[in-house]
Amino acid sequence: MPWRALYRNRRARTPQDGWTIAGSPTTLLSMRRVRLSLLLIAALSPVVWADRLAIPHVPQRYVVRTGDTLWGIATHFFQDPWRWPGIWNRNIQIRDPDLIYPGDVIVLRYIHGAPYLVDEGPAAAMAALGQTMAAGSRNTVVLRPRVRSHALVAPIPTLEPSVIGPFLQRPLALSRRAFHRLGYVASAVHRHTFLGPMSRFYAKDLGPHPGKVYEIYRRGPALRTRDGDFLAYETKYVGEARLVRPGRRLPELEITSSIREVEAGDRLIPWHREAPIPYYYPRAPRRRIDATVVAATHDNLNLGTYAAVAIDVGKNAGIRRGYVLRIYSRPRPFYDPVNREMVRGRRQPLGLLMIFRTFARVSYGVIMEAHREIHVGDTVATPRD
Q1: How far apart are the first and last CA of the chain?
Q2: What's the rounded Cα separation, in Å, for the pair 157 and 59?
Q3: Angstrom distance (rounded) from CA 169 to CA 283
Q4: What is the pLDDT of residues 153-183, one digit of tens each?
Q5: pTM (2 decimals)?
Q6: What are the two backbone dihedrals, phi and then psi, of residue 316, each rounded to the nearest 5 degrees?
Q7: Residue 253: which of 178, 172, 184 has the closest Cα?
Q8: Is the sign of the CA dihedral 36, 37, 39, 44 positive or negative?
Q9: Whole-number Å distance between alpha carbons of 149 and 165
Q10: How many CB atoms lie within 10 A of CB 207?
């Protein structure tokens, strides 16, 4: 049937009702069902969104204080802090819409039942605006010049600086090639010398333009996948040294600080200014990630909140700083006495991990929540609803 004839059959003009939809009772019944479904979706949508908010008491207004962290504020509004970026409204009227400062007011609002958060700026400014609006209601606004001063404040960090600060520059995860290309400690200048602070040593392979200050690292254990494939060498920080006598053949350095004795063969990495605390939004990866905890930054067998761990995926797998992953236990096998067989149980959620540093094939994260003890060998994956 031509489309014009089909169109005439589906819609007919009547003098009483104007345009009406012509069709069988089955068609009309289907349309009523569709309309009812749409009404149910509209009615239930606030409930669905409510599940994403912190239950049962969700603050409608929060004033940021000194000492707050982005993760902490997100947990005020959400059971799942990684949902923050999905409803965060970047206020273009604020100087840095991506940054949050002490004194800012975070307000929870709803559009068609869906929540979103907005930064309305400093609380003092909001109060002044309210006073101005009140004065405007009397049709009189008095403006007086005045000097305004305030201390320079930094945006609140994503995490407490003391949690990830020590790990922003070390440990390092280096490939075999990168590790063997580093300069190294060749020998002590004086025979039978304990290589500690104020001791001097010869170095080699510093390159044609050596730096003035170096960090000293020692090769640690090799990080490997669950199948045993090599990922990277984890390095252990030893100390720092400064160049006191340059030279192409045998430059001479003096140890300025150390946490253990320096040994011949330790590697030298040019010192860089202390890394700033990174600012990023906690968020879940858009793609599915499955990885394994392959190392911890300390020797405790049982890991808990704020412990730093390494996982066996990195930049090559699309891992970015700020990603939040859920930690799972390894499935525990158990014996079924009725069927007389071994059964493999399910993996159980243990907590949350936030990535703060990435390398090519390895990433480091900090455990933000731990419901039970966590071990090397446990798995991590993209959190699901």
Answers
A1: 47
A2: 21
A3: 23
A4: 788 888 888 888 778 777 789 999 999 999 9
A5: 0.72
A6: -60, -25
A7: 184
A8: positive
A9: 31
A10: 11
